[in-house]
Write a structure and sequence with these properties.
Layout (H helix, E strand, L loop, with lengths): L3 H19 L1 E3 L2 E3 L5 H21 L6 E6 L2 E7 L2 H4 L6 H13 L8 E6 L3 H9 L4 E6 L24 E3 L4 H19 L1
Parallel strand pairs: 5-6, 6-7
Antiparallel strand pairs: 1-2, 3-4, 3-5
Helix pairs in contact: 2-6
Bound molecules: zinc ion (ZN).
The site of zinc ion (ZN) has 6 residues, from helix 5.
Length: 190
């Protein structure tokens, strides 16, 4: 007769492999099941929202961004137009520059940029130049959005790179931050 312990040891080994296959680390957090792309997007958009809140606390228009590569944040930024007196100091530009510095490359070909509001023409241009693979954003910007609203620079076929776009992730929270910010300014001006 075969000793039951001789059978249980390999069983435990294979079960542990099966468990490890099911668990996955996303930005330092363990998921027991393989997260869906929607869950990953919502999680990282949440980090962009945190950046947006930091901008708001400084009296800046609350927009935030993070750049993610292989499920790790490699760059983050929030709008700093007023602080730096610089019209180019948008969250996306700061996050892209930080990410390029971090990995020592001018291209971010396998990376995704998460931002709370649809990028403007300048930032959309930077996304193409950096060759970002994906853009995930929260709220549309009908007045200045250059990723599908006013125009679509990131998917312009005449340019040498096109970016995959997913919009409307955590849209209500992203748009709410902006509308609350401008409402507060209007109240203070009365
Ligand atoms: Zn911009």
């Amino acid at each position: 007769m075969v000793c039951p312990f001789a059978l249980s040891a390999p069983l435990v080994f294979f079960l542990s492999i099966a468990y490890h296959k099911k668990s996955k680390e996303i930005n330092g957090e363990m998921f027991t099941e393989e997260p869906t792309i929607e869950e990953i997007d919502q999680r990282f958009l949440g980090l962009a929202l945190r950046e947006a809140e930091i901008a708001g606390e400084k009296g800046e228009v609350p927009i935030g961004a993070v750049v993610v590569l292989e499920n790790k944040v490699i760059g983050r930024g929030h709008n700093q137009n007023k602080t730096l007196q610089d019209p180019t100091a948008h969250a996306e530009m700061i996050a892209i520059t930080a990410a390029c510095n971090r990995i020592g490359s001018r291209y971010l070909e396998d990376a995704t940029l998460y931002v709370t509001v649809e990028p403007c023409a300048m930032c959309a241009g930077a996304l193409v130049l950096a060759r970002l693979r994906r853009l995930v954003y929260g709220a549309d910007d009908p007045k200045a959005g250059a990723c599908g609203s006013l125009l679509n620079l990131v998917q312009e076929p005449r340019l040498n790179h096109q970016v995959q776009v997913t919009g409307g992730v955590r849209e209500a929270e992203c748009a709410g931050l902006i509308s609350d910010f401008f409402e507060k300014i209007r109240r203070e001006q009365k």
